[in-house]
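Input:
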Amino acid sequence: MSKQNNSFMNWLDKRFPVTENLERHLTKHPVPKKVNFFYIFGALLMVIFMVQVITGIWLMMFYTNTEEGAFASVEYIMRDVEYGWLMRYMHSTGASAFFFLMYFHMFRGLLYGSYQKPKELVWLFGCFLLFLLMAEGFLGYVLPWGQMSYWAANVILSLFGAIPVIGPDLQVWIQGDYVLSGATLSRFFALHVVVVPLLMIALVVFHIFALHEVGAGNPEGVDIEKHRDEKGMPLDGAPFHPYKTFSALPAIGIFFVIFFAIVFFVPEGGGYFLEKPNFEEADFLKTPEHIAPVWYYAPFYSILRAITFGIPFLGITSKFLGFIIFAASIAILFVVPWLDRSKVQSIRYKGIYSKIGMILFAASFITLGYLGTKPVNELRTLIAQICTLFYFLPLILMPIYTKYEKTLEVPERL
Amino acid sequence: MIRYFALLLLIAFCGKLLPAGESECGALESCTEYKADVHDLFSLQRGLGLYMNYCSSCHSLQYLRWNRLQKDLDIPENILKEDLILNPNVKNSDYMTFGLNSDDSTAWLGAYAPDLTLRTRVRGESWVYTYLQSFYEDASRPLGSNNLVLQGSSMPHVLSSLQGRQQLNNKGELVKVSEGMLSEQEFDNAMQDLVNFLAYAAEPIRSEREKNGIFVILFFVIFTAVMWLLNREYSKDIK
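Output:
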């Protein structure tokens, strides 16, 4: 049997490099032996991506992408399709889980300098993935055609309308109509199920290829490639398969325990995962009292709302300035590899300013997230403005403090 | 490691502290907390009875099918046909569409009577439960009744024959001015039945979902344990 197998593999390998790639990416790819729990989120993101794709395909079989039929088709899935409710809850919970894992994955990157030379491209592809995930989430959120779907989409699309000169025409071009309507719904459906997922799959592949070229990091920021054994395997490393694949499985198990606890017992997530107004069909004539984004957009939405002033002499309205700052809050993440001038990678060996900066950044992000789900008042706007400042400052000042602050000596081995 | 878990716990706790919506109970400070029980079959059947007698003349259940209701609530075929559907042109597999059409409703009552299939998910179970108990007489309203939870509600107090008449005292609290067919406790139970039924209508699978979820979770607990043991064996190689 094994001989047959080998001859089959030989035949295959001469025509398609199966073994070479398996060895390169799995069985001989070295990864650091000792990492902490922050390093599991990448694997979990792969799992949740697959969950979303598979459940999405099933939902697509029964969903109707028309203004008249969308809302009813979701109820049809929930009631008449066998296990349709499970697919739908897994998909809606999966969206929240995707962002939750993504934020932790990126925070890990910031903490342990997973963007530093030569990992700039890994980080860049990851940032593009965040951007695509946000687009994907937004497009998908419109599809059930509930009240909040409709009005939240209106708020976001009106941002394009705020761009000077081309804005109003651009908004009509994106919507495909003068108002958000069935025309918008069907193009959002096409983008949500085909265009964005395809781009995401491509970028995931790039992300992983780039990572396997430069090697995975570790919380110490130690370069494991420096010390190798006689076979060329790093002394502090182990092959990805079976060691890392099997160490990920218990974590995936724990993740699914939590995931399915939500799916089966609190699928609405207290109104955070499935919002109450979305159980009512979109009504063009009835604006909800309070339009709130889903929790995972709340930090960015908060930044958008915090900008209550424009630059009149440049003709920039507060809405447009808000849009610029909102876009900048995501764009700035792309340039982090060039902002950090530190000699060390990990926060463990960086100086006090980096530590304070990271705490301020994380605290602002969480506070902005909380404020984004609440209606505005004066105090909340003020806090949001302060938090916006502390979201940007640690990143903008990074080139200065990382260059001059005192760092600790990084050990040779893990 | 422990610090990270403390951070995670803190974040989870923040979510608990800060519910998504603010108080939405109209003139009342907060709604009476009520969590529907969709596992009590008799309660759901009683709730259906109340719904058909008191709600169905105006409010439809447009996403629920008669035969789904029959299966889930264990209703015999003859009762479904003769006492519930009533109309020989309606098939068992049809949706429960009945009640006022929106033009008539707007002309007669001033507002359309909303479809109630998903109402408990839009408003919340506590809201509906409190709303049903908070009608009072108000001569300034066209139909002579108002509601503390939804001020200016166009819905008349259709349950007054069961609950009795209520008025507001000087402090703005509800007081009973005449007895209905049911005692206070009986009426409260009846409203629980009705909300339970509405919660069922909003999500017919809920009872099954809550019953079966534990097995899925149990499977992943065992999966985690086995994988943990397997990983322990593997990680011995690279110690």
